[in-house]
Fold each of these.
Amino acid sequence: MEQGFIPPYFLDVPELLASLPKQKSPKTGYRGVVGGGTDLYVQRPEKLTRTEVQLVSDKVKLNGIRIKGKNCRIGASSTVTDLLESEDMNRIFPNLKQHLKLVSSTQIRNMGTVAGNLANASPIGDLTVFLLALNASVTLKGKNKHNLPLREFYLGYKKLNKDPDDIIKSIEFPLPGKATRFNFEKVCKRTHLDIASVNSAIQISETEGRIRSVSLAAGGIGPIPAYLAGTCQFLKGKKLSAKTVKSAAKMLTGEISPISDARGSASYKSLLLRQLFFAHFLELFPDQFDLPDFL
Amino acid sequence: MKNVDAAGHVTGKSLYLDDLPVIERTLHAAVIDSPCARGKITALHLDESRAAPGVVALLTCRDIPGENEVGGIVHDEPLFAVDEVDFCGQPIALVVAETEAQARHACSLAKIGIAPETPLLDPREAIQKGELIVPPRTFELGDTQAGFSSSTHIFEGVAETGGQEHLYIETQGAYAVPMESGHIRISSSTQGPTAVQRTAARVLGVPMHLIEVDVTRLGGGFGGKEDQASHWAVMAALAARKLRRPVKLVLHRMDDMRMTGKRHPYTSDFKIGLDENYKITAFEADYYQNAGAAADLSPAVLERTLFHATNSYYIPNFRATAYSCRTNLPPNTAFRGFGGPQGMFVIEAAIAKAAIALGVPAATIQEANLINNGDEFPYGQIAKQANARRAWKTADTVYCAEKIEAEISRYNEAHTTTKKGFARMPVCFGISFTKTPMNQARALVHIYQDGSVGVSTGAVEMGQGVNTKMVAVAAQTLSINPGRIKLETTNTTRVANTSPSAASATADLNGKALEKACIALKNRLAKEFDGIEIRNEEIWLNGKKTSQTWQEMIETAYLNRVSLSESAHYATPLIHYDKTKEKGHPFAYHVYGTALVTVTVDCVRGSYEFDSVKIAHDFGDPLCDQIDRGQIEGGLVQGLGWMTMEEVLYNPEGKLLSNALSTYKIPDIYSAPKTIEITPLEVSGPKPAIKKSKAVGEPPLMYGLGGFFAIQNAIRAFNPDYTPQFTAPMTPERVLLALYEKE
Amino acid sequence: MHELVLNDRIVRTDLPSGTTLLDFVRYEQHLKGTKIGCREGDCGACTVLLGTLCKDGAVRYQSVTSCISPLGNAFGKHVVTIDGLALDKTLSVVQGALVAEGGTQCGFCTPGFAVSLTGYCLSCPRPDEDSAIASIDGNICRCTGYKSIERSARRVVDAL
């Protein structure tokens, strides 16, 4: 241990911890599970603070990030820090650190679970938008174990497609192919430690100048984090050109319904989504496109 | 000089209000406030709250023995609402319970019936309805009509600045403990212990000497705890008196943000005239201050807007009128700069507008009009030791401003997705309370018989380092080791009738009083001991060092029955102001500086980063260099925050939307400029500055105004169709919409 | 009854697992060094370190905002607050760096910064300025403008 960084008692701590009995979980007074608590304690602290809660952050079965065949499987209780420290995730997403830097803060990344972000159902959930563009699916456990595409998980504003007692067990997404590129964008009032005004993620593969497949998601432009199916449909198979991008951008506005609120006016959010859409192509195809091409 | 508080801070040992040990039988309070911005109270269903578990009492306006009045300048603000509510968040009742959780739970059970009326939120609308807090004030110099007639160019426009939430990291709170015979001791997180004392005495209907207010330190103040700490302290005292038990009231963050006032938003009209040499021949402005529902400090803030309407410039023909407009928002209050930044924004906007129209850099106009010695401010004071030009030239030469501008031009030509913007921000800020009677202070020094020293002043430490400066003054004046000096808490029983720690004048006023006390003690000891001198704790006699120690000398003085205590008083000399003529010499001196601000705007996303802020600043001879630089860096970043990401948002019903840290954003570590450089002007301070060290709390905030104009210049570099608007804050939304604005 | 190691000792509590870790530390254990800034996880004033015993016998530390952390997530773990970072006669490297560079003014956010930076020292394999700054990206200061805190972080990196 260190020279003058921490007091000497730190050396005794591993032994002290090992000596502690296994901690039991008594009957809970709150319906539902609690992961890191980073959303629940902001929204409904009075329901949680004086009662026992069912904690899932440390459950072994809900943790771990593994490649399973052609999929990547993320345990529900994985934190954003777990994503950042996963060799597999960093290999699949070379810009992962840059993208996840825009998500909350060091402390919150240490605490918040991926499943929690999805279950919180914020229309602007960063990880939700990220995973939607990866064509992710969620595995739920409750009365029955079942799996459904993340795209189908949201029925309306904060309305989840699950029974109240179901919990998310894991999240899976197909491993991106070799020619596939991925980008995540997020703009807020303050670049870091802020909730997005609009965020967006894209997974796109292109060969011989044509778009082979594309998944596009955005948050902050409707009641749920949205998969922009119409725009994706339009882009698929088209030539990767400025004209295509400009036309697709026009389609985008038809698929979204932003509202004016503390995070921005509706017209701003529409414009911002268009700009983030352009940003995807500027980031992923820097040799091919420059901003004036799209304007 | 080492910061005397830093070691306590980094070990978590510094004590703030909520850290004070809780005495047995302490009760906890929570406030029931109005959910509606305007209306008549039709029903107060508080029985469920009263009957809630742990609740001991529920206090309303009917429980006030004295006056239901907390207003300072104008008596227009009740502690608890009576028949009507005037803003969302207005206190209506106080719940007192055995635990904080019980008190808060009881609050949630209250049902307030209000017959709502349409709230007035816009100051321009308020003035049309005659809703003014005080009569308008006008400052005039020369003849603007003649000035405009002789102008070559005239430009008009509108400039607007928004509110700003103080966001002291420590929220408001107080802890009132009843002592003997009606004496109540209040620990209060306040910048103004005397204001708390006076207000509590009024509300409780007792003489001031029965209220003792004690402050150890604040976890930030910025003006938000100058007058508005009193409300919570008085509520706690009221409950403590009634229930004869200690009562603690600490606001949760969202309650604090909802119930307290902020920096005054302003909307202003300007008209500027220039001659062919870019000299400003005339300037007129009308400032509409959004005061909120009660006066609080609005009249004083209003006045300072006028005092700083010309910023660093000399304008021979000037007329400005300021209106304090009553609206249905929480009463707005002091905030670092105190109306000055809002006034300065307007003149800088006028200059920017003129510059853009004339196709010249704003700097051309700024430099042509900088104030010189002998020039007259519109309020009659003559500029002395005016360092405006010196600061401008220093920044220009030290930082090679021309080179920066050239580099930015080249960058903008070469880049399509990002553009850089540059702006210069000269600052001139007057130091003294504009209300002359407030420019007084007292200090109390005890030299204990073992040679240790205790110092009390009226200064409240809130991070500005005044504790360290007071220790420095005492140590330097007595010529003893700073380690021998203990800075006491700020307490109304030790120093009475104090002005709040505000106006950047705390170190000057309290330091001068302290210096006087120390000099008196030094002289008394010298007289007693045949003319001894104290040099770094050594006792010297007739130019020769003696073997006596400081402790021995003090012990002997005590045994000789020489008083080792001294209290001294200081009132700033020479300042005066006549409100009937709006002329005088209100400021002891001015502080000057110039900042060069560079920003890079991401034209795809509308976000931006400040590359650098390079400042030439008028420090005088700093008492503690590190503290003063810290004030510059901190003030600048707070000012940049005000101009960019900090947006106070209310909905049309007058309810605060930006009511938490998740919706109101202040600069984080990545928002600060990549580099901040500070060059001192190397000119000593004038006599009224303590040890020639110039006041430093507020002036640097105004360097942040440069951030707005730098961003605007970057937008202009991207979008030739952009019509410059002068509405702050320049949020990423405003930037993006401006980048893509079509003619 | 549940157990955890709080700073230098084992403590037992029968507070429910849903209690916030912040309230446990301040009001049950009476350790007042950790501050309350927002109760929303947005300011970092309440930062503490949470240490988990790993299979290899080492303890892995992470910074967390205790205001939104359930006490239950600390059972069986090591909780380190600013109060538990005091060295006997001197300031720690992190504390000394903050003092030397003036990285503290009103001091209210300072315990959070000191804890976050100490957590960084305990957990970073390759110290550099960028990652040191990243470790305090969840700590908000209203007074300093951050540059003095950056300078403090640089000092800490140099010492590592």
Amino acid sequence: MAALPLEQALVLAALLFALGLAGVLVRRNVLYMLMSIEIMLNATALAFVAAGARWAQPDGQVMFVFVLALAAAEVAVGLALLLLLYRRFGTLDADALSELRG
Amino acid sequence: MLRLIWLVPALPLAGFVVLAASGGRLDRRSIAWIGAGSVGLAALAAIAVAAAFVAAPPPAGAYTQVLWHWIEAGDFSARASLYLDPLAIVMMLVVAGVGFVIHLYSVEFMRGDEGYNRYFAYMNLFVAAMLLLVLAGDLAFLFVGWEGVGLCSYLLIGFWYRDAVNGAAAQKAFIVTRTGDAAMAVGLFLLFASLGTLDIQGIALRAPGAWAPDAAPVVAATALLLAGAVGKSAQLPLQVWLPDAMAGPTPVSALIHAATMVTAGVYLIARNHVLFALAPAVQYAVAIIGALTLLGAGGAALAQHDIKRVLAWSTVSQIGYMFLALGVGAWAAAIFHFMVHAFFKALLFLAAGVVIQALGGEHDIFRMGGLRRRLPLAFWAFLVGGASLSALPLVTAGYYSKSLILDAAWASPQGGAWLWAAAWVGAALTGLYTFRVVFQVFFGAGATTDTHRVGWPIRIPLAVLMLLSVIGGFVEAPQVAGRLEAFGHFLASALPPLQPAVAPGTGFALGVAEGIASFGGIALAYAFFLRRRSIAALVARSAIAAALHRLLESGWGFDRLDDHLLVRPYLALARRLRADLADPGYDALAAAAAAAHRGLSRSQNGRVRWYAGGIVVGSILLVGAGVWL
């Protein structure tokens, strides 16, 4: 199997990251914002794996496992918060949920 | 036994700490026991230490106790040390003894006051600071006591703080004495810079070797010390605060503003007599200030109608005598007069306190009269004190101390006929203004008042001070009354005796002249204020006499002078500086901060997407800065 060139992998990761970021900034539904954050996390994980393959080091894959664990924990807490938010306010519109302001 | 010397200032200080820490939770009985008891124990300790000192004088005639090393910085060293010599013993005994009887008097006098606890706390702190002042062996340590008594004086003048007048009087006393203290502090710096020590005995040892007589540094240092003494002892031109200081309770006036604190300047000069002997010009200035003050204050006392202000001006005048004695080199005579003055002036104030309280707070002597029968104790006390103040020959203590000063003013090489004449006129004035009060208050037709009963806490102090005002002088007698020099001999190791002594023939003539002055003053008072009141009324009606009366009553117009010369220009300057050039810059800074705050607080809108955008922009900027910069 031909080795994936690092540049292409990084471009893909950057595109994914930008997509996720755009989703966070543009979508108003908190559920979709959470999903966009997952995409951004996976983009960084991809960059780690590609870099690990490029220099033949295990660190990239170690970091990938970390990111996976982090994403799982984040989803667990995030979805719980989401449920509570919906029960309390009856909406998931991030702009409507602007109680926390100075 | 001498090792217990530290107890003498420590006991009143402990009393202060207990009273101040109790915060008014003690009942009046305990407050009185602690307040008067701590000073009583200090007086007992002082007597025990003095007895041990006299029974077995330490080698070199002085005992030093180093409590701790206070400041050690480079070659600067200030020790918290106590120094006990005959001069310190006399001062300590008078302060602790008179302090105790006045505390005892206060137990009853202040009974109805809501600030009973505060009063005794301040008074104990004062006694502690005053004892520290007279026992300190180091000028820096002495300065602690010096400022401590100034603080207590301020607190007690303004004791009845709800009346704004009292607060103003307290501030006036504080600011005026602080003027002198600032000069004194500079004098201390100068002494240290020149001699490398602030230890009093070290200074006395090094100064004659370091400086020729009349050298510039010693003249400057003594002049600055003199300024401190003039402020504290209410001499010309800083005497303005003392008459106003009578706003405090009467026992405070007796203790602080008559018997002890105001004589601290006398003590300071006597303690540093080696320095002043090296600066004859400054020493002569001390004599001139004393002579001018005793005359000016005697005149001012003559025109007052507040009984306490009469006594206040007489205090200024008597301290003028002490300064005169210091100025002509009669150190022991000044301390002798200090001691006797403490007895009879405390007595006069305490008797005046009884009169004022009996009349329900009346201070005006022209609304009093004929109190001889109604207040016999106060009458006899005031009469004995007044006789001693007027130096009634042979029978009163005041005669012995005052004639010693007059003799010295005549005989001393620094003195002369003019200084003697000033003191002689002052002696006649003293008799006149003192017995003006006696005749006005206790004789003649009277204001009606009930017989005022006083308890033993007031009777005992009056009796003790009456006794001391009479027999306190029988330790030193001038030529005319049979020469006796017990007091001078006791002090000889600390203060050199006057050279040359008065010639026997002259001494007799001077003694007779002094007797004439005293009797003459009293006789004039009798003629004007009791026998032939019409003469006084006739004189008072003339325009010149009225103008003179106004001038004297205002204390030679020094208050107005200070007001125009110092207070008003200062206030005008302060008003001018209120809108100065530096302020707009600071104001703009404050306005910019406020505007920035308003702008930034708008960005905190609670929208999570907005925050996320902020994080993105910030990250890009940071990463960009890391990559390209």
